[in-house]
Design a protein that fits this description.
The complex is a heterodimer of chains A (295) and B (392). Chain A is mainly α and 295 residues long. In chain A, 74% of the residues lie in helices and 0% in strands. Chain A has a single domain, classed as MetI-like fold (Orthogonal Bundle). Chain B is globular and about 65 Å long. The chains are: A mainly alpha (295), B alpha/beta (392). Chains A and B meet through helix 9 and helix 10 of A and helix 3 and helix 4 of B.
């Protein structure tokens, strides 16, 4: 690098890349920052579940069923004497995993379909958007129950089902961005330089769509975690003995449990609530960060 | 030429119709070195060089190109039967008002006319004999930016604002050389930026377009265009969006870039100052058709179409008092163009025949073409238009 005279350096504010400026706006959003910390803790807890829990989530202790919190079992035990804290932490892996995987699937499918739809137009666009309309107009939970009933409940099926119902949001968004970007002269210039549709999508459309898509993606994660909990609660998602926050809540279906044994339902309930809330706040923060008009 | 006449006369490049001696140079007061200035091409040298190339097959030839655009009000023949040839290494200026079809012609060459609403109805576009209209999408992408590169009018909008300038040029390289590594691409871009006169190229590489001035941006665009050593450069009003003080520098750069690469250049412009400065040959378009073609000296010396004569006489002149001359009337409605010669409603020498009989460009000898029935009567062309008739 050649020698740079300090005098010709642009002022610091002008030197910041768009990404860095967005980060600064995000950090100004207090709830989002707190949420990011909370979410980070939840993720770390799930990742290091084995080290933190001190118990195996699936080992039953029939001499200590539905025992209240104690020094050994911090959050007590469930109906078959399994450690609730261990189950809660391991369930976090499943719930977060399903949420992220489903949202990722939705974002990838949505981005590919949306950008091709916007770029190619014509019948491709028509078909893709009508398909999106169909998915958006179905009551997703009902269809997911049917899918789980037909092909049997499994984590993979659930991820695919959730992703299937979430891509249209992202697809429409990316299509909108594509329609705006493709009219830009720099896209015309890229075409004149020999760029094909896939190149345009990778170099110009995806970067332009990334900020709004990241917002939608975060909200999709929250939604997916909620859906996973719902499905598992109904017994159509994650199957026992594997733990998920949803199927842990299944235990709380009786009034006696709700009134006398809060350690069975309060922790997973709070975990879902805290995670979804945190992710949603982060989504809000991201939206403000990437779109300065909404501050 | 209307753009030219709005308030920038004082700084505009000034063109005077040359007399026998060749192009004369005129400068407005007070902008000694800043404004592009019309300089005569080297005596004789350029001319003979060009005429030698006549025997070779042209680099690019367009034959009877017809491009239609569907609009809500009807079909517009944006380009209506254009034929032209560009030989290797020459600079051809395409001149005309907005909407005369010059940009559409250029975009057709690259196969970038958006369909719909545009559609190439007829004609052949041959690059060294290869029919580009029949070329595959893959071949076309190879040609774009490879054999034919384009420089856009507004360097602000032709660069992606959220991508560093260096990366954008690097991408132009990597589009045509898939094995090019990131480091090699970077060093080649820095070399290119230096070549087009961007100072501190290393640092500029990582900057965003908004950190570049207009002139620097256009330099970067030119670097991008010459990155793959094209055979043909298409410059679509490369100086229109620039400050007049920068125009001269960019024109000079275009000239050196053209000399270094040996690329033939199609220069689309409505600025006759730019034409006189750079072009070897001029093609004048009106209402989607070629109305006149000539080498630059003959055209300025003796236009053989009343529209060209009008364009030349409406260039502001600092050496003469009096009102600005303009061509009466306004450009034709392209949905329903006038019958016969499209220029007849504005033409001072229009006759009955011009209303009904559409003139085709015909050969006048010496590589000149004109689409005027009465081209031979145009010896006194410059006197056709009276000053002050419709000033401004």
């Amino acid at each position: 690098m050649s020698v740079i005279e300090p005098a010709v350096l642009a002022p610091e504010a002008a030197r910041r890349s768009p990404g860095r400026r967005a980060l600064r706006r995000f950090l100004r959003h207090r709830m989002a920052v707190v949420s990011a910390v909370v979410l980070l803790l939840i993720v770390l807890a799930a990742v290091f579940a084995r080290q933190i829990a001190g118990h195996d989530p699936n080992t039953t202790d029939l001499f200590a069923t539905r025992a209240g919190p104690s020094g050994d079992h911090w959050l007590g035990t469930d109906a078959t004497g399994r450690d609730v804290l261990a189950r809660l932490l391991f369930a976090g892996r499943v719930s977060l995993g399903v949420g992220v995987a489903a949202a990722l699937l939705a974002v990838v499918v949505g981005t590919v379909v949306g950008s091709l739809s916007g770029l190619l137009g014509g019948w491709v666009d028509q078909t893709a958007m009508r398909l999106a309309d169909v998915f958006m107009s179905f009551p997703s939970l009902v269809v997911m129950v049917v899918i789980a009933g037909v092909i049997g409940p499994s984590v993979t099926a659930m991820v695919i089902a959730i992703g299937l119902f979430q891509w249209p949001q992202c697809g429409r968004l990316v299509r909108g961005v594509t329609l705006a970007v493709r009219e830009q002269e720099y896209v015309q210039a890229a075409r004149a330089a020999g760029a094909g549709p896939l190149w345009l999508i990778r170099r110009h459309i995806v970067p332009a769509a990334l900020p709004p898509v990241s917002v939608v993606a975060t909200l999709a994660v929250a939604q997916a975690i909620g859906l996973e909990a719902t499905m598992s609660f109904l017994g159509l998602g994650v199957q026992p003995p594997a733990a998920s926050w949803g199927n842990m809540l299944t235990d709380a279906q009786s009034l006696t449990v709700i009134s006398t044994m809060p350690w069975l339902w309060l922790p997973p309930g709070l975990a879902v609530a805290a995670t979804v809330l945190a992710v949603n706040f982060i989504g809000d923060g991201l939206r403000d960060a990437v779109d300065p008009r909404h501050t | 030429m209307t753009e030219r006449s709005e308030g920038i006369e004082d700084a505009a490049p000034v063109v005077t119709p040359p007399d026998e001696g060749g192009l004369m140079t005129e400068r407005s007061e007070g902008i000694e070195d800043a404004a592009p200035v019309v300089t005569p091409p080297d005596e004789g040298g350029l001319m003979t060089e060009r005429s030698e190339g006549t025997s070779e097959p042209p680099l690019l030839s367009i034959e009877n190109l017809v491009v239609d655009f569907a609009t809500d009000d009807g079909v517009v023949h944006a380009v209506d039967g254009v034929s032209l040839a560009v030989r290797a290494g020459e600079i051809v200026a395409v001149v005309g008002e907005s909407g005369s079809g010059k940009s559409v012609t250029a975009m057709s060459v690259l196969g970038l006319v958006r369909t719909p609403p545009g559609v190439i109805r007829e004609g052949r576009i041959l690059l060294r004999g290869e029919d580009l209209r029949a070329a595959s999408g893959e071949r076309l992408r190879e040609i774009r930016g490879g054999e034919i590169a384009m420089i856009f009018q507004d360097p602000m909008t032709a660069l992606n604002p959220v991508m560093t300038v260096g990366r954008q040029i690097a991408e132009a390289l990597r589009l045509h050389d898939h094995d090019l590594g990131a480091d090699d691409a970077r060093s080649r871009v820095v070399t290119l930026l230096r070549k087009v006169g961007v100072p501190e190229a290393e640092r500029r590489y990582g900057q965003y377009p908004h950190e570049f001035s207009g002139g620097m941006r256009q330099r970067a665009m030119i670097a991008m265009a010459i990155a793959n050593d094209p055979d043909l450069l298409i410059a679509d009003e490369p100086t229109t969006a620039l400050d007049v003080t920068i125009q001269a520098q960019v024109l000079e750069l275009l000239r050196t870039a053209q000399r270094d690469t040996g690329a033939a250049t199609i220069l689309i412009t409505h600025d006759l100052g730019v034409v006189a400065e750079l072009a070897d040959r001029v093609i004048v378009m009106y209402a989607g058709r070629i109305v006149e073609e000539a080498d630059v000296r003959s055209l300025f010396a003796r236009p053989r179409h009343p529209y060209t004569a009008g364009l030349l006489s409406s260039v502001p002149r600092a050496d003469l008092d009096g009102d600005l001359v303009s061509i009466p009337g306004s450009p034709p409605n392209m949905i329903d163009p006038p019958g016969g010669c499209a220029f007849h409603p504005r033409c001072p020498m229009a006759r009955e025949r011009c209303r009904t009989d559409r003139p085709e460009p015909y050969d006048l000898g010496d590589g000149r073409r004109s689409a005027c029935h009465y081209a031979d009567e145009l010896d006194e062309g410059l006197a056709l238009y009276a000053a002050g008739e419709e000033a401004g």
